[in-house]
From TrEMBL:
Stretches of the chain forming a coiled coil according to its record: none
Name of protein: SCO family protein
S-S bridge residues: 77-81
Organism whose genome encodes this protein: Ramlibacter monticola
Thioredoxin domain: residues covered: 37-173
Statement: the UniProt record of this protein carries the keyword Membrane: no
Keyword flag Lipid metabolism: no
Homology family: Belongs to the SCO1/2 family.
This protein's UniProt keywords: Copper, Disulfide bond, Heme, Iron, Metal-binding
Length: 333
């Protein structure tokens, strides 16, 4: 006979409780703000300076009792910071001015405080037409490194010149959280903007979801999930924060041009090189690249380190998207 230990007996009891649905409710630590572990004892209340030169404290002034999105950038970045900022600008637009700065707050903190003065951050925010409720911050390097550590976004620094060439020395992630409830999570800044907006909004007590979305029926689910081409997948995750396809009448808040028929209006060789090394073309003062840079608030096209195959996939998607847009317009006539 095999002896039964107390540990074995407890495991058996717990297993039976789980499979029979018999359980008890354990009060959430986050439900009681006094027991919330993610409070002032965890988050450092370090001093920071806003893009307007205002002195603030991280915990007391920025996150205490608020729903927030926090990321780390530096204005000299020619790689992913611009894409990240553009995607969050989309999220800001979806949340809307009636909630931004009242129910939801965005914070972008520089990891290069030696160069990112309040004036530099203000100019950077203006390039992306950032609205109220989104604050750009700088401070002392040791304080910023401490925040990155506590938020789980610290990476050892690399030489700033290498970073400008695309070597990333910071975690490309957004931390979203509700400090009042102690609910925090890391999200990709390349995530769909509607998904990010919904994640933030779902933590608000007065967030309203359309009834059709509250209890979706499996009967209405698609038989098969849509299959994305490699080019469309890359466009949705890398390009859609700045560009559109099929919206040629650009708004005043456009970060980059609509790309409908771009494969017709630009030589393919130029497009291939532009997707491969836009930083080099801007440095060489290529006339088309320079004109685009000047037209769109001097926001540099990031070098995404795309392979030749990835570039061809993106161009193929743009061709198909442009053709679909033209066909839809013709059908309306």
């Amino acid at each position: 006979m095999i002896p039964v230990t107390l540990r074995d007996l407890l495991r058996t009891v717990l297993f039976l409780l789980v499979i029979t649905g018999i359980w008890w409710n354990v009060p959430s630590r986050a439900a009681n703000s006094s027991q919330n572990p993610w409070g002032g004892n965890y988050f450092p209340n370090v001093p920071l300076v806003t893009q307007d030169g205002k002195q603030v404290r991280f915990f007391d002034d920025l996150i205490k009792g608020k729903v927030v999105a926090i990321n780390f950038i530096f204005t000299g970045c020619s790689a992913a910071c611009g894409m990240e900022t553009a995607r969050l600008r989309q999220v800001q637009d979806l949340i809307g001015p009636e909630r931004m700065g009242k129910d939801v707050f965005f914070y972008s903190i520089s990891i290069d405080p030696d160069n990112d003065t309040p004036e530099a951050l203000k100019a950077y925010a203006a390039k992306f037409n950032v609205g109220p409720g989104w604050t750009f911050l700088t401070g002392k390097q040791k304080d910023i490194d401490l925040l990155r550590n506590r938020l789980g976004l610290y990476m050892p620094p690399v030489d700033k010149e290498k970073a400008k060439l695309g070597e990333i020395d910071h975690d490309l992630a957004v931390i979203i959280g509700n400090q009042a409830t102690g609910r925090w999570q890391k999200a990709s800044p390349m995530e769909n903007a509607e998904v990010l907006a919904t994640q933030l909004g779902s933590w608000l007590s007065n967030w309203k979801v359309k009834p059709a979305q509250q209890n979706p029926s499996y009967a209405n689910a698609p038989v098969r999930l849509p299959e994305l081409s490699k080019g469309e997948e890359m466009f949705r995750t890398r390009c859609v924060g700045c560009h559109t396809v099929g919206q040629p009448n650009e708004s005043a808040r456009a970060i980059g041009p609509d790309l409908t028929h771009v494969t017709r209006t630009r030589q393919r060789g130029w497009l291939v090189r532009w997707l491969k090394e836009p930083d080099a073309m801007l440095s060489e003062k290529d006339p088309i690249a320079t004109a685009l840079y000047e037209k769109y608030n001097k926001i540099a096209m990031p070098n995404l380190k795309l392979t030749d195959g990835e570039i061809e996939s993106v161009l193929s998607f743009l061709e198909k998207g442009s053709a679909a847009f033209q066909a839809a317009n013709s059908a309306k006539k």
